[in-house]
Amino acid sequence: MSIKQKKSMDETNITSTGNSISINSGDDRYYITNNEKKDHYSMVLPQNIDIFSGILKKAKNIADPQIYDYVLQILLSLNNTLHQINQTDIIKNNLSKLNLSIMSDESVLIEWNFENFRIGFSIEPNLSESSYYVVSDDKISGAYSSEANLLTPVEVDSVIQNIINFVLRNT
Fold first, then answer.
1. How far is the CA of 54 from the CAs of 7, 12, 159, in angstroms?
2. How far is CA 167 from the centre of its chain?
3. Is residue 111 within 8 Å of residue 90, measured between CB atoms?
4. Minimal CB count within 10 Å: which of 49, 63, 66, 70?
């Protein structure tokens, strides 16, 4: 599968080394096409839930091919889950954009920040140490809560589904 973003002036192609995911990026809209089946179909995310602005340009700087593939798997799962939910029940929430940081040890941090909570995915050089977290605060009580768990490639889709449901309930 590949994430394609509508091209404006210049286009960036990002291709996964371990699977069939590749990314073409432009300025503002994302499309998913299934290259494995040679089917071409679009999954356009409306502006209010298009959370990928700018992240693909940063992703192309990930040096480690395994980390890169894992990051693409997470981004693709986020995109697919948002699209599927939006097909059955139009999402009216305005969602913030994702942030991606490449750390000095080559690990990658994907963060999704909101007013009262933060969600993150930490992709480590030793992939078995990769994890996700949710940190939130209750403005009324002042209490903070956090959840962090290891994240395996097999669990990505179910974890993303739960995270998206949490985000939609709390935005």
1. 13, 12, 23
2. 13
3. no
4. 63
